[in-house]
């Protein structure tokens, strides 16, 4: 049985937009569930004194969700098992600032909003989210533009009933299951459906899946375009979370078109958890 990696620190880049608020709700809810440190990062071109009053408010959100009562203090927030840090990166490219913060803060998970091809701020664009997701060393949870995600912004209630994992022979899909397992265990549901989708003729081993008794595991196959099939399945099945493993780009075609995961990032059909192929690999195959 594999030992799951721990998520002790969650990084949430923000620009105070509505999209970022939805992503913030996911980061905060997971921080509470995992008792993880929450690091809120604001990338500013020039201003080193940002108006945090317009930003996400941890204490007020936790009061609204019912975790704290009116008049709660920072000590009450800490008593929940989480610690919050606010960080400002001034005059730096957004993707580089996020990547540097992942390393310096030892983040175990990044949660980001995305605004598709027409981002209203620099870091919301695929030109920023793609490098972070594809080149980073930790899982990245992307919340698509105009998608409510699986955490209710008003109540904090989590609805993570359907998880779709896109699998292939390469890279090994076990890290995708392990990362999904951490989130599903942190946000338990009465019943969870976990489906794997393989697009191609060669079968993929699935003995790396170690479901809990309350989970229903499904295995699907399809032929044709990978991106199209994954997108259509996630939308038709109303997946709460799509999980993919990435190892960057391969070959001439990927250099022209971008990798499968990179193309999905440009128009995510659901909240998307992108897991580096080397994440937790020391645990694969152990017993």
**What is the residue-mean pLDDT, rounded to a whole number?**
84
The CATH architecture of the largest domain can be given as: 3-Layer(aba) Sandwich
Largest sheet: 10 strands, mixed
- What's the N-to-C terminus distance? 4 Å
- The first-level CATH class of the largest domain is given as Alpha Beta
Rg from Cα: 18 Å
> How many helix segments?
9
In short:
The chain is of the alpha/beta class. It has nine helices and ten strands.
Topology:
Blueprint: E1 9-14, H1 18-34, E2 37-44, H2 58-65, H3 74-79, E3 84-90, H4 94-104, E4 109-113, H5 126-135, E5 140-143, E6 162-167, H6 174-186, E7 192-199, E8 215-222, H7 226-236, E9 241-246, H8 251-257, H9 260-265, E10 272-276
Parallel strand pairs: 1-2, 1-4, 2-3, 4-5, 6-7, 6-9, 7-8, 9-10
Antiparallel strand pairs: 5-10
Helix pairs in contact: 4-5
Structure description:
This protein has 287 residues and is of the alpha/beta class. The protein folds into 2 domains: 9-143, HUPs (Rossmann fold, 3-Layer(aba) Sandwich); 162-283, Rossmann fold. Helix content is 31%, strand content 22%. A 10-stranded mixed β-sheet has the order 3-2-1-4-5-10-9-6-7-8, sandwiched between helices. Helix 1 links the parallel strand 1 and strand 2.
